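tool=predict chain=A
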Amino acid sequence: MKTYENELDEMIDVVIKLTWTYAVFCALFEKKSADRETREEHPELFLTMHDSLLCGFCVATAVLFEEKEKATSICNLIREVEVSKPELGNKLKERIRANRRPIQELEKIRHQVYAHRWKKKAPQEVFDEVRPRVSMMKEVVDLARSIVSGLAQESGGQKRENLEKQQLSKRTLQCIADDAGQLMRALAAPSRPSAG
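tool=predict ok
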């Protein structure tokens, strides 16, 4: 059986991947005219990357904020913390409640488009209802990072410091964005005639 520390490590990993996915998504789909042209030159590639990144983001959001008791999630980690530190637990639960809307909207996409295909609605209808936005993703990333950082600090040790110095540092996120920028530039380069 997993310990609290095991579950916290799992959630930290999910938050890291969620944050990295958001960074790549923003870098690849920023509204720059040069990048727009690159995306238009490679529509299948960018459609696939867009859907894959959004799917991964929605799945990670659903995992992090799952409320079922048997799930490994931030919500259940908070319940465990609440036993010994009710004030901290209540504070973290309130932050989730205050940001519930974007979480629910992204979970809706996960459940109705990426995990299941409901007979009542086509995927486009779900997207039209939710209208996913980068700002919605940012709210979820900021909330997840803040909560997992607080839980890591509460668990003691160097978890929080290591997290902020390595995987979630500004430098790491900038490297991810730079790498995505290199991809955009490589795809924008004039294609060479194939040797034949």
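The chain has one domain: 4-187. The mean pLDDT is 90.
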